[in-house]
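Example with several molecule types.
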Amino acid sequence: MKRRFSREQRLTIIYGILCIVLIIVMLQLWLLMASMNAYLGGDSSVIWPSVVASFICFGLNAGLLWYIRKIEKS
Amino acid sequence: MKGRQDEQLSLPPDGRSLAEQPKWRQDFPIDWPEDHYVSRRDFTKFMVLTSFAFVIGQVWIALQNYFRTRRGDPAIRQIATADQVPIGGALTFEYPYPHDTCLLLRLNEQEFVAYSQKCTHLSCAVVPQLESNRLYCPCHEGAFDLASGAPTAGPPQRPLPRIKLEIYGDAIYASDVELRTT
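Resulting structure tokens for the full complex:
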């Protein structure tokens, strides 16, 4: 059985998701700055792990966005 | 718990009932919870797009690193002879490619050092100030230690790239560029 959320519940959910997405995006920004600093400093050891970590972060964000669409359809 | 019918009602921002609201609001009610929901949902979407842009940035850095690694080490090239640089003097040269301006500095009779002339903050040209034992960036008051190239003042965080030198007799050769994070 699909669960239908009230408007207040959906607003609470969107606030929670927005907080998580913002934290993840800030983490990605930090990763990007660290990678750029390493690249300019000639250190290539952290670059590919950063790409993987950033991609995982994006996957989490995309999953949360998918969840928003899901609760809107229910 | 509110019923489904209640959810369809418009909620004014002051919390009073619709009958107590001014006529313009009764005629054009705004559903504030729905309005807040939509604006936050759209902001979340924009943040996810930003997240994707960061992934693209990371991939771009990785590709740049890949192409830089494929280029390999620069060729060894003679840049000057010892008598061209007086003690306490400096000479500019281009290495490893044209327009990559570098500074060759003679600290004493035997000791030479060379650095890229681009400041690690925003790539302004640094100026040697040997009397102050530093390389000075006039753009944002940055300074680097003469002997090590490490940042000593201003916004630069990384040391200047060091040009590896080899001296054979009187000739000074540049053999590599050493990028550093600390």
